[in-house]
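Tutorial, part two.
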Amino acid sequence: MRARVFVTLKPSVFDPQGQTIADALHSLGYDAVEEVRQGKYFDIDLAPGVSRAEAQAELELLAREVLS
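Running the prediction step on this input gives:
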């Protein structure tokens, strides 16, 4: 089983990298872009035989305690 975990900043946290990307897009003529939030994702392969419920619990814990 493979999972994809997305990690982004909370909406209340200023994202300078996202702002830089938005500014660059505006300078290239993409005026419809209002905001960019930068983040990462992790592809995680789980061991065979892990149930969907076990995988979800494990991944939620991993995302909350390790990746964020």
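DSSP finds two helices and two strands in the chain. In part three we will examine how such features are distributed along the chain.
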